[in-house]
Amino acid sequence: MSAASPTQRWWRACAWLLLGVSSLAQAQPRAWLDRDAISDTDTVTLNIETDAGAPDYAPLQADFELSGQTSSRQVQWSQGAMQSRSLYGVALSPRRSGVLTIPALQVGAARTAPLQLTVAASAAATPAVPGNATAFVEMEVDDASPYVQQSVGVVVRLYYASQLLSGELGVDAPEGASMQRVGEDRSLVREINGRRYNLVERRYLLIPERSGPLVLPGARFNGRSAGGFFDDLFGGDGRLRANAPDRTLQVQAQPDAAPQPWLPLHDLRLRYTAAPTRARAGEAVTVVVEAVADGATRAQFPELPPLDAGPGAQVFAEPPQYDETFNGSTPRLTLTRRYSVVPRQPGTLVIPGPRMAWWDVRGRQARTASLPDLSLAVAAGAPGTAPPPTALDTTSPLPGTTATPSDAVTVAAAASRPWGWIAAAAGFAALWLLTLAWAWRRRRVAAPGASHAAVGPAASAQVPSRGELRRALDHEGLDEIVALLGRMGGVHGLDAVLARLADPAQRQALSDMQAARWSRDGGDATQARQALRRAFHDGPHWQPPQAAENTGLAPLYPSGR
What is the DSSP letter of 55? Predict the structure, then answer.
């Protein structure tokens, strides 16, 4: 075997260097639970965010039953590079009560951090059975002394020991309150006092409209069972009736010191699910804020406060996404909103964190949920991408200082010289020239047909599939869709994609989606996304590439024009 040439050894070293950099750049997988405490009759969702492949759920089966596994993929541009992350979710039903440990899970070559979950034994696990009843009903209220306009979760449970042919389960709305059924019925099996019962769990949402005593009628059940040996022997008709006792709630008036708008909750938590620290002038970065409110519905919860970046940037908000579930017997709302922040000029951009005032119904006091300020290091954008910089008064000194016009010129000149970026650009330019020279040398010694055969498959292997595009159209934002189309068309940016598309309907659908996203009121984003799916249902229609003019001259040789 002949020894490798200096050029081959140099390229092998570059390949190993790139592999090392990519392995270091791989982010540590992040795991979290949607709540830290549940009852033994409830479920909790484990979320894992990673870029290293699907996690191994096998260690979870010792303490949990697994169901509802989901996965989604997010692709976005950040600092001129494309980043891909996957989010995996699985629903966990505990096999026992107590403090359970979510073990560290293997995700690729890394492992997640262990988590703790508190599982409480629910009161419904050993209910008081009236005698040896074939069927009985119980009703649970999550707050016996709620406030006016507070969302109160009501859970009705029907236990029956024989097979049912028919039945009707319900509860009447009390005077002075509104009540509606929410979600789907849940079916379980429980053993109580040595007898096996089927369990149907139904949820309601009660909202008191005035203060004072509120009588909630007990849930009732009327049905007919399939009967059995003793029913046939003694002439039983198989009818079943059961009622839960009435409940009296003491509704409290709105406190005088309560913040406005009035927002009574059990808990409110805010967090960033995407919080960049770097950006470029004229290029959008994505900030995602999530609010989890225990004791609220979508109709009651106000909008998240807007991000205010001041004159240093433009902020465009997409319509919020809502998810309504239950935490035990308490309603839970998860609201997610994406913001696109476009810095106007290089420097440090500080975005104040959002704040929301609410009333703690358990602690009976006003509280404020807040997030820390975001600080972005904004670098100079690529030529032609940054918007016109805001005019600054360089003759006025900063507060508490004195300065002359010459000082202002000196400061402006120093700020305009980002030496770090200049050095990095020079290094990349030198590397590019070396690569270009090596490629030119190979082209002179290799056959033209072999060159095209080597380049064609490698380039086409990087083009995303139509399946990836369809998934992005269903779940991703406009930035991710444009980035994916740019990779498919070999261009970068929305304007370049629009110029490359040949179908007017596809160009119009992209323009409408951008207008709906950046409009002040959010626009009709749902209708725009549907139009986008219809326009790209069979993939993008690109304009044919223009053939290069054959001048008869060698490559890289000046044509003299």
Answer: -
Residue 258 gets which letter from DSSP? -
Element (H, E) at 410: helix 405-415
Those residues with Cβ within 8 angstroms of residue 542's Cβ, 6 or more apart along the chain or in another chain:
489, 500, 501, 502
- Rounded to 5°, the CA angle 184-186-188 comes to 170
Question: 228-232, 454-458, 475-479: lowest mean pLDDT where?
Answer: 454-458
- Is there a contact between 293 and 255 (Cβ–Cβ < 8 Å)? no
Q: How far apart are CA 64 and CA 96, in angstroms?
A: 8
Q: State pTM to two decimals.
A: 0.47
Report the C-alpha gap between 296 and 305 in whole angstroms: 17
What are the tens digits of pLDDT across the range 164-203?
888 888 888 898 898 888 878 888 888 888 888 888 989 9
User: Which of 387-396's residues contact partners 24+ apart within 8 Å by CB, and which partners?
Assistant: 387/281, 387/282, 387/342, 387/344, 389/281, 389/344, 389/345, 390/311, 390/312, 390/344, 390/345
Token reading at 135 = 């069927």
Sign of the alpha-carbon torsion through 454, 455, 460, 462 = positive
